[in-house]
Design brief:
By secondary structure, the protein is mainly beta. Helix content is 8%, strand content 38%. It has two domains: 2-220, Alpha-Beta Complex (Sulfite Oxidase, Chain A, domain 2); 227-341, Immunoglobulin-like. It is built from five helices and 22 strands. The strands form five sheets. Strands 14-15-22-21-17-18 form a six-stranded mixed β-sheet, with no helix packed on it. The chain has a five-stranded mixed β-sheet with strand order 2-1-10-5-6.
Length: 342
């Protein structure tokens, strides 16, 4: 309950927005939001296994080549509340996702200036947020392989939707890693360290790992799995959550996305278990942003179940049931809604 009071998901009815307003974008912070009284004094330190360590101000960074990308970010724990038994972390349902336009400089310009040593195997990123998890004190940190970190689309970001980053979203500087679950996009970024050995920080090895049993080593959580969501049609019933819809043609619409720059190729709508292909809009916003879809349902009186599922270019399709994971990560099961047609 304390976690749910500090963090929030997007409202499904706001999926109508191509770009999620900052105040509606999902939010997950592990520790306190750092207080930054003066962004002009903020420094990003780059060190470790580099030949030319240095530090950079926000102003200096904004004079480097800039890039704006529309990126869909989803929390790796989105849908955790539908997995049983549920891991005692943020009880997400469907809304831990949002799409924003992020502006900053490609990370590679900074790493190229620092000159990575030939023995670098990972690049670690640390935020100013610090706290305890399972009794271990640490600053939030994650890492990337050099080949990914040197890609054109990994950004050091200072603006969200054309405005300075809000405090809760990492002001004054954060990392954005398109195509990965949100845990990789470190907020309040103040240190980058090149490493000659794999990063062993808590948020890298003790969590964000797919496991089905307590003792297995597990598989790291990385790219976002293919997924779709539906804007709830009609009107809500306050107590049951069912949707109330009038009989006749009903336009259903929603969003679909996948990770790693892999495009969504198909969205289907299920009505009482019968699946029909929906209309998928063109990917005009780039490879890292969700796509909208529409479907006209001829609603007949009675009780119905609506569902949606997406398929990507790798042939991955959303499962009908939640894939079990001890930590509740990566749940991309189909989105279902219960509807009463009057």
């Amino acid at each position: 309950m304390r976690l749910a009071n500090r963090n929030h998901g997007a409202l499904l009815e706001t999926l109508r927005h191509d770009v999620t307003p900052a105040g509606l974008h999902y939010l997950l912070n592990h520790f306190d939001v750092p207080y930054v009284p003066d962004a002009a004094a903020w420094r990003l330190d780059i060190g470790g296994r580099v030949r030319a360590p240095f530090s950079l101000s926000i102003d200096e960074m904004q004079h480097l080549p800039q890039k704006t990308l529309r990126v869909t970010l989803e929390c790796a724990g989105s849908g955790r509340a539908e997995i049983s038994p549920r891991w005692p972390s943020m009880p997400w349902m469907h809304g831990a996702v949002g799409t924003a336009e992020w502006t900053g400089t490609p990370l590679r310009y900074v790493l190229e200036r620092a000159v990575l040593d030939t023995d670098v195997v990972e690049v670690a990123f640390f935020g100013a947020d610090r706290g305890f998890d399972k009794g271990i004190e640490h600053s939030y940190g994650r890492s990337l392989k050099p080949e990914l970190a040197l890609g054109d689309d990994v950004l050091l970001v200072h603006a969200m939707n054309g405005q300075p980053l809000p405090p809760q979203h990492g002001f004054p500087l954060r990392l954005i890693v398109p195509g990965w679950y949100g845990m990789a996009s470190v907020k309040w970024l103040n240190r980058i360290e090149a490493l000659a050995q794999p990063f062993d920080g808590y948020q890298q090895v003790e969590t964000y790992v797919y496991k089905t049993t307590p003792r297995e080593r597990g598989t790291p959580v990385t790219h976002t799995r293919v997924k779709s969501l539906m804007v709830p049609p009609g009107l809500p019933d306050w107590w049951s959550g069912r949707r109330m819809v009038e009989a006749g043609p009903v336009t259903l619409h929603g969003r679909a996305w996948s990770g790693g720059g892999v495009p969504v190729t198909k969205v289907e709508v299920g009505v009482d278990g019968l699946w029909t292909q929906a209309q998928l809009d063109p990917a005009v916003a780039g490879p890292h942003a969700w796509r909208s879809w529409q479907f006209t349902w001829t609603a007949a009186k009675g009780e119905h179940e609506l569902a949606c599922r997406a398929t990507d270019a790798n042939g991955q399709t959303q499962p009908l049931e939640a894939p079990f994971d001890r930590g509740g990560f990566g749940n991309n099961m189909v989105h279902r809604l219960q509807v009463t047609v009057r």
